[in-house]
Amino acid sequence: METISSRQNPLCTHIRKLAASGSYRRDRGEFLCDSPKLLEEALAWAPESVHTVVCTAGTPLPPLGDPVRLVQVSEDVMRSIAPSQTPQGVLSICAMAQRPAPEAPLPGKRYVVLDGVQDPGNVGTILRTADAFWCDGLFLVNGCADLYSPKTVRSTMGAVFRCSVWRGGAAETAALLRRSGIRLYGAALRSDTLDIREMDCGQPLALAVGSEGRGLSEELLRLCDATVRIPMSEHCESLNAAAAAAVLLWECARNC
C-alpha cells in the first residue's frame, strides 16, 4: 500500500479533475466512484475496470486484485479530493465502459430514452430504476447530464456497471428503435395519448422521458409513435422525472 500525505500529489490532482470535468473524464477514459458501496459494485460487475483505490486508515476494503493500485491518505487529504461533503473513506478510479455503438436490430425488448434530463441525480436514479425493472438499455439525447459525473454515478448505486447506456441524437435514436421494431412512447399529452394502463406492454417498446421543466422536446415528440400519460389527481401537473420514469417502468414490468 502506498501512502500519500500531500494534497498536491499528482494523484490527488488527477482525482479532483475527474470529479470536476466531464471533458477530462472523457479524455482519460476514467471516472470516480465515491463510496465503499460503489467499489463493491464495481468489483462484482466490472472488476477489470477498477484502476486505483484511495482510502483512509482503518477503512475496511473488499479483496482487491493485484493490478489495482491501493493508496492510503489522511482524513485531511481525503476531504480535499472527495467530491462529496461527507467522504465515506473510499474513492475508486474506474475505466469507462467501452460499449460499441448500438446497431439494429436491438436485441432487447424494453429501453428508456432520456431527453434533455440535466439533473445528474435524476439521470442516475432513472438508470438505477431501469436496471431494477429489467430494461435492456438507456439512451441519452439532447444534452442529458454526464453519466460519469460523481453525483450521477452515486445515484445509480452500481447500475452504471450493469446497464448499457448510449448517448446520441434524437433522430438517430428513434431511427434505430424503428429499424429494430421497437415502438417509441413519449411521456406527454397529445391527441394520441394513452393512459399507461392501456398500453400494450408485452410488445418491444421504449419509453421517452423529458426534463421536469420542459418535458419532451418538440423534436422527440415528432418522432414518437404515440404518447402516454400517468393518471393522477387533477391538482397535480406533473411528477419529478425520476418518479415518472419509475411509475412507467413499474407499470410496464407489471403488465408484460
TrEMBL record:
A Pfam family per the record: SpoU_methylase
Record domain RNA 2-O ribose methyltransferase substrate binding: where: 32-100
InterPro entries: Alpha/beta_knot_MTases, Ribosomal_eL30-like_sf, rRNA_Methyltransferase, SpoU_MeTrfase, SpoU_subst-bd, tRNA_m1G_MTases_N
Keywords: Methyltransferase, Transferase
One GO biological process term: methylation
GO molecular function, one term: RNA methyltransferase activity
Gene Ontology CC: cytoplasm
Top-level taxon of origin: Bacteria
Keyword rRNA-binding: no
Family: Belongs to the class IV-like SAM-binding methyltransferase superfamily. RNA methyltransferase TrmH family.
PANTHER family: RRNA METHYLTRANSFERASE 3, RRNA METHYLTRANSFERASE 3, MITOCHONDRIAL
Name used for this protein in its record: RNA methyltransferase
UniProt organism field: Oscillibacter hominis
Lineage: Bacteria, Bacillati, Bacillota, Clostridia, Eubacteriales
